[in-house]
Amino acid sequence: xxxxxxxxxxxxxxxxxxxxxxxxxxxxxxxxxxxxxxxxxxxxxxxxxxxxxxxxxxxxxxxxxxxxxxxxxxxxxxxxxxxxxxxxxxxxxxxxxxxxxxxxxxxxxxxxxxxxxxxxxxxxxxxxxxxxxxxxxxxxxxxxxxxxxxxxxxxxxxxxxxxxxxxxxxxxxxxxxxxxxxxxxxxxxxxxxxxxxxxxxxxxxxxxxxxxxxxxxxxxxxxxxxxxxxxxxxxxxxxxxxxxxxxxxxxxxxxxxxxxxxxxxxxxxxxxxxxxxxxxxxxxxxxxxxxxxxxxxxxxxxxxxxxxxxxxxxxxxxxxxxxxxxxxxxxxxxxxxxxxxxxxxxxxxxxxxxxxxxxxxxxxxxxxxxxxxxxxxxxxxxxxxxxxxxxxxxxxxxxxxxxxxxxxxxxxxxxxxxxxxxxxxxxxxxxxxxxxxxxxxxxxxxxxxxxxxxxxxxxxxxxxxxxxxxxxxxxxxxxxxxxxxxxxxxxxxxxxxxxxxxxxxxxxxxxxxxxxxxxxxxxxxxxxxxxxxxxxxxxxxxxxxxxxxxxxxxxxxxxxxxxxxxxxxxxxxxxxxxxxxxxxxxxxxxxxxxxxxxxxxxxxxxxxxxxxxxxxxxxxxxxxxxxxxxxxxxxxxxxxxxxxxxxxxxxxxxxxxxxxxxxxxxxxxxxxxxxxxxxxxxxxxxxxxxxxxxxxxxxxxxxxxxxxxxxxxxxxxxxxxxxxxxxxxxxxxxxxxxxxxxxxxxxxxxxxxxxxxxxxxxxxxxxxxxxxxxxxxxxxxxxxxxxxxxxxxxxxxxxxxxxxxxxxxxxxxxxxxxxxxxxxxxxxxxxxxxxxxxxxxxxxxxxxxxxxxxxxxxxxxxxxxxxxxxxxxxxxxxxxxxxxxxx
Length: 887
Known about the structure:
single chain; mainly alpha; 0% strand; elongated; disordered N terminus
C-alpha cells in the first residue's frame, strides 16, 4: 500500500499554523452561520433525541427534545422578534466599538423587550409562549455580545472587554435558565405520567425489547424522565459553548484520513526510533506498553478530548463522524455499543423487514467499556468518554471542570443506572445477561443527594462570581422543584448585593413565572423583595414605561411608593403628564402617587417662626413648589392640591418667605374652590361641604387674603413714598424767564398733586379693605377652623398630625396678626385717617375676633405707643383723643 509522506516538525507546524489560522478566521467571522446550520427552516434548532430515542430510534412520541420544548415558538413570533435590519445593526455595533466596554449599551433594549413579552401573553395558559420569547430574546443578545467581543481587538497586557465578557456569561446563564424552566415545567404541568405496571400487563403476550422497556420507564417514572430532560438541557448548553468558544477542534489542526501516519512512516524507516510501538492495531500501544510518534500522540490527545467534548454536548453522531474522518473507524464503532436493542420486525411481522437497531449484546459491551474505563494506561478523556456511556461516575468526574459538567455526570449516570435496572428486571432475553461490574451504582440515590455530592466536590473551588452561583442555585431548585427555596435565595441575594439591571430583570421575571406556577407555595414577601429591587434599579435609570409596567405588580402601597420615587425625578410638565398617563394605563393609582410626591417633598421638620423676612427661595422650597404641580393636572385632585398647598404655605409663611408663598398661590387655578364644590356635589348630591374640606377651603382663602393684603401694602408704599410729586424750587436771583417757567412748573405740580391724592385715596381704600379682611376674617377669624366643625381625627388628611397643623396655624396668627394691625395703623395714620386709626384699639380689644390674644406684652405696648401718637396729632387738630370735636 502507498505510505503517506511524514509531516516533519518544521513543515508540519508551518502547514498546521496556516490551516489553523484559516479555519479560525472562518469560525470567527461567521459564527451565526454555524448556529444556523443547527436550525431547521421553521426557526428551531435541529432535533437532538433523548436517551430513549438515541438508544432505540423509535420513541418519537417520547423524545425528550429539550431544544424543541425550550424554543418551541410559533413561526410568526420567531419572525417578529428575530428579524433585525442588518445595515442598522451593523452601524449600531460599529458605534459601540468606540466605547471602552460596550456590553451594557449593546443589551440596553433587553429590558423593554422583556416587558413587551410579559405584556404580550397576559393569560396564564400562555406562560410557555412567554418563556419561549424570553429564551429567544436572551439568545439573540448573547449572540450580539459574542460578535462585539470578537470584533473589538484585545489590548496587550489587559483582559479583553472584562465587563462585556462577564455580561455575556451572565446572559448565557440566564438563557440556559429559561431553557431549563420551560422544559421542566412543560413536563410537570402538561405531561401526565402513565402507570408502568399497567403498561407491563398490557404487554404480557407481547415481548418487549430493551428499548421499549426503557420507553415505558420514561412514560411512567417522572423522576427519570425529568432527569433525562436535565441531561438534554446540559448537553444543549454545552453545544452552544462548543460552537462559540471551543477552539481546540481537530479540524483546525489536520485533515488527514490516515490514523497515526507519523508512527507508520517511522516504522517503515530503515531504523525505527526506540520505544515506538511495533503494532498498528488499535490495542497495539497499550498491549505492548509502547508509545506513538510524538506528533501522533498530540493528535490522539486532541482527538479524544474533542470527542469527549462532543459527547458532553450530546453530539454523538458528530463524534462518530469525526472518528471516520481521521481514519479511526473502530472508535466510531465502539460508540455504537451503548444503544438499547430493538427489533421492529417482532412488532410488525407483516411489514417488510426493517433493520435491527441497537446492540443485542449490550451487557457484554458495557462490561468491556467499564473495564477499559478503569484501565489507567488509556488516555483520561478516552476513559471518561466510555465512563459516560457505561455509568462509571468515579472515572467520569475527574475530567469535569465546571458545576454543569458535574451535574451532567451525576444525572447521566443516574439515568443510565435506572434504565439498566429496569431493563434487567423486565427483559425476556433467551440468554443469561452478564453481571454488572462490581462497582456499578446499584442505588442511584435521589436528585437532592446528587446535588449534595456536586457541592462537596466543589469544596474550596467555589465559583467566585456570586451571580453565577445564584444562577446555579436557581437551576438546582428548579430541578428539585424547590420553588420556595429558589425565591428565598433570590430575595436574599437582592438584599445583600446590588445587582445589575439585567440581573434584576432576569430575577424579577423568574419570580413572576414561579409565582404563577407555584402560587401560595412561595413566599409573597420574598417575591416582593425581588420585584422591588428591579423597580428600584429602573427608578434610578428614570425609565418611566418600565417602572409603570413593573410597579403595577407590587402591592398597592409599594406601587405608590416606588412610582412616587420615580415622579420626583421628573421636572418637565409634558413628561409629568405622560408619566401620569402611563400610570393610569398600567393600572397604578396615579393620584395617590402624585400626592405621595408632594408629601415626600415637604417631609422635613416643622419650621419655627422666623424673626426676619427671607426673600430667597431655597432648593427645598423650590422642590415643594414644583411638587404641588403634580396635583394640578387632574381636576379630581383639586381638593388634594388645596390641602397640600395649604401645608406648604404654612411652612413658607412661618419662615417669612412671602415671595415663595406668592409663587405657590399663583400656581393654584382660580376656579379651584368652585371645582371642589362641584366635585363634592357630584359625588354626594349635597351642597354643603364636610368639615374637613370646608376648613381646607377656608385656610386657602385665609392665605390668599393675607397675601393680597401684603401685596396691597407694597403697592401703597410704592405709591406713597416713591410716586409723590416733588415741589419745584426757584433759585435765588432767578431771572424773569426762570420765574415764569417756575410758575408753570408749580401749576403742573399742583395738578400732579391732585392726581396723586386721588390715586392715593383709592389705593389707601383698597389696602385698608384688604388688611381689614385679614383681621376681620369671618367664621372664627384668620387661620382658624370654623367653630362648628367637629373634632379632627387623630391624623389629618394632609399627612401631618392635626396637633401640628393647629400649632402652625396658631403660630401664624401670633406672627402676622400684630404685624397686620401695625401695618394697617401705619396706612391709616400716614393717610391722615386718624380717627379710623384710633378705632383699631376697639378692634383689637373686641371679643368678636379676640385679636388681643395674639399680641405679646411688648407688641401691645408698641401698639399703644402708636395710638398715643395718633391721639396727640388729633389733639393738635383741636379734636379729642378719639377724633371727635370738643363739646
